[in-house]
From TrEMBL:
Major subcellular location class: membrane
Biological classification of the source: Bacteria, Bacillati, Bacillota, Bacilli, Bacillales
UniProt protein name: LTA synthase family protein
One GO CC term on file: plasma membrane
Transmembrane segments: 12-33, 39-60, 67-87, 119-139, 160-177
Region spans: Disordered: 600-632
UniProt domain Sulfatase N-terminal: residue ranges: 242-535
Binding site for substrate: 408
GO molecular function term, any single one: metal ion binding
Organism: Paenibacillus xylanilyticus
UniProt: Mn(2+) binding residues: 250, 292, 468-469
């Protein structure tokens, strides 16, 4: 039996001190990550797992318990801090898969620091203070240990710890077990606790059983997607034999096109290109942890990103079906151009798996006129044009992918590159810095287009331009930033807006100047290029569709939005535990409005974002005509099937080095 005296003496030790400390730290993480949380929720979800760890210290630690508590405090503080920073950058809860890529984060440390509010660092302040006290006491007393006041013997301490341990284990199981099937990682973390979610992802990391490789074919994929043919906007093979240039724009969101701030065009060159080309305003990113490298993967394979990790590390050892290999089979030279170190995000292995003949990285572009962590877009385009001219002179067409980098988060341009003067209200804000950076990026694109024309490449090429991923995550914006975004959109900035990027397709003399309203995603770029160039997809498995010949798209999303999120032609669906309690967002009030000129009237009335949201439980019956506005349960399940099929196929491919 436990006596009151034993319990009191147990609780008067480091157990209670560090419990109070961890309550404060977990509450800080919850305030940043979760909305409208009750005060008791972190106590109920975080404390049980913390106490389990503390009880293990009480069981096994001897004289140096305080140092053991302090070491554990450092580990748990690191997890909470990582959760805060990762959420601010990606909008999802960090797990051990992401932590394994921490070496990549150091390469974008400026982006991380820009998201760091100084008060986040208080999460480590107690560690320094307590360490200082312990060291000072150690020095003062020498090797002698100060005995605890009325110390509790080890046997009694273990007895108390065992009771608390059992109670905490039960509560942990009640937090974790009922919520393990939730689709949304945010919901899982809120119900399990951040620490419980981290433990769950480690202990329950058993991938879904893959679909047998011999059952996955294009007919099966097309049956799940249920696309329909439309009258071709451009004849199949109309751009056959032309060079293919794919330009991936860093952090370029769709709202930039046509945007004026106090009468100034932010992206005049890309605006002009969109007006003269096939322009898809309802186009969406499909990237994950690998961001830019994920976009390169999705565009070049027409497969989805993996459930965890960056595609460039998860799939780079596989014999990937790809656009470079498809074009090579038609006699094309292939090359990719990126000013950063090719080893960043394992691109050296990714490019080999994709089958590019050549890649050009920092070793070619150098560090001249550096912006962010590589040579400027001006250097990128000038030196790339030299290589493209050489490739055209070789006598066969080429496929070239160009990766721009200068407009990289946190959007800090050298003063000499700043040419957009924004109103005072935009100064020292994330949206303001973003617009200034994208204005520079647009100027560089204008130089690229002019260079293509001057060097005789323009009229003989197919140019495809798209954004790689979002630039302004909602969860990274402070109150003033959100007000500026409301001013730009004329309403609240939404999740659908956030992942909305443009796609522009132009082949001079072939493609008309036309805005196409059908929805599309990065997975659709490969089949669209294949359709224009006449490349056969007969033996090329793909999950995208030709946007010039097919409609009825279904776009699964992962990362930046909870897993299970999906778009169709009319709405975005974001799940909670699953379909039944998710929320539908009408794209009619999100990504499909014309961008208006922004004048100095930021206090104008805007529609609240809540008007855009419809709980899944109110979705009309699937048989009713109005149900077309929302994602049906069938569409939701088919989107999940597509993601699972993609991963199943890729993980069962042979290693790339075994390919003949």
């Amino acid at each position: 039996m436990l006596s009151r005296s034993s319990l009191t003496r147990f609780l008067s030790g480091p157990f209670i001190l560090f419990t109070v400390i961890m309550i404060i730290k977990s509450s800080l993480a919850w305030i940043v990550i979760f909305d409208d949380i009750p005060v008791w929720k972190p106590l109920l979800t975080e404390l049980p797992l913390i106490w389990i760890c503390f009880c293990l210290i009480e069981w096994f630690a001897g004289k140096r318990r305080m140092w053991a508590y302090l070491a554990l405090n450092l580990v748990l503080s690191g997890i909470f801090f990582a959760a805060i920073m990762y959420y601010k950058y990606y909008g999802v809860i960090v797990n051990y898969h992401a932590l394994a890529q921490v070496n990549q984060v150091t390469s974008v440390k400026s982006s991380m620091f820009s998201l760091l509010d100084p008060y986040y660092l208080f999460i480590f302040a107690d560690i320094l203070i307590i360490s200082g006290i312990l060291i000072r006491r150690r020095i003062k007393l020498g090797a002698a240990e100060r005995p605890e006041k009325a110390p509790l013997d080890r046997r009694s301490r273990r007895r108390v710890a065992s009771v608390i341990l059992i109670m905490s284990l039960v509560i942990c199981m009640l937090n974790i077990y009922p919520n393990r099937a939730s689709m949304s990682e945010i919901t899982q973390a809120e119900q399990m606790g951040i620490l419980g979610y981290e433990a769950y992802t480690i202990l329950a990391d058993r991938p879904d059983k893959p679909v047998p490789l011999d059952t996955i074919d294009q007919d099966y994929i097309d049956q799940i997607k249920q696309t329909t043919e439309i009258d071709a906007v451009v004849d199949a093979g109309a751009a056959k034999g032309r060079n293919v240039i794919v330009l991936q724009l860093e952090s370029f969101q769709n709202f930039l096109i046509g945007l004026k701030v106090d009468g100034q065009e932010v992206t005049p060159n890309i605006n002009r290109l969109a007006e003269e080309s096939l322009y898809f305003p309802n186009f969406y990113q499909q990237v994950g942890q690998g961001n830019t490298s994920d976009a390169e993967f999705v565009v070049n394979t027409s497969f989805y990103i993996p459930p965890n990790g960056a595609a460039s590390t998860v799939y780079a050892d596989k014999a990937l079906p790809s656009l470079p290999k498809l074009m090579s089979a038609d006699g094309y030279q292939t090359a990719t151009f990126h000013t950063n170190d090719v080893r960043f995000w394992n691109r050296d292995q990714l490019y080999q798996a994709l089958g590019f003949d050549q890649y050009y990285d920092i070793n070619y572009f150098g560090t001249e006129d550096s912006i962010a962590f590589s040579a400027s877009d001006e250097v990128l385009y000038t030196k790339t044009l030299d290589k493209l001219e050489e490739m055209q002179a070789a006598g066969s067409p080429f496929y070239a992918q160009i990766i721009s980098m200068s407009a990289h988060h946190p959007y800090h341009l050298p003063e000499s590159k700043v040419s957009l003067t924004l109103p005072e209200r935009y100064k020292d804000t994330l949206p303001g810095d973003y617009l200034v950076s994208q204005h520079y990026a647009d100027q560089a694109v204008g130089q690229l287009i002019e260079g293509l024309k001057q060097r005789g490449l323009w009229d003989n090429s197919l140019l495809v331009v798209y954004g790689d991923h979002l630039g302004l995550p909602i969860y990274s914006l402070d109150r003033d930033d959100k007000e500026l975004m409301k001013e730009i959109y004329g309403r609240e900035y939404t999740s659908a807006d956030m992942i909305n990027i443009p796609l522009i397709v132009t082949a001079p003399g072939i493609t008309p100047a036309k805005q196409l309203e059908q929805i599309g995603g990065q997975v659709d770029i490969l089949p669209t290029i294949a359709g224009l160039t006449g490349a056969s997809l007969q033996n090329q498995l793909h999950f995208g569709q030709d946007l010039l010949r097919e409609s009825g798209n279904l776009l699964p999303e992962r990362y930046y939005l909870p897993s299970g999120s999906v778009l169709n032609d009319a709405s975005l669906f974001i799940p909670e535990t699953g379909y039944g309690d998710g929320t539908h967002y009408s794209l009619a009030k999100a990504g499909r409005q014309d961008i208006q000129q922004v004048e100095n009237n930021g206090d104008q009335e805007a529609d609240p974002s809540e008007e855009n949201a419809v709980p899944a439980t109110t979705t009309p019956d699937e048989g009713s005509s109005s149900s077309e506005r929302y994602i049906t349960k069938d569409e939701y399940e088919r989107a999940l099937d597509l993601m699972h099929l993609s991963n199943s196929y890729l993980i069962q491919l042979p290693d790339g080095n075994t390919e003949e």
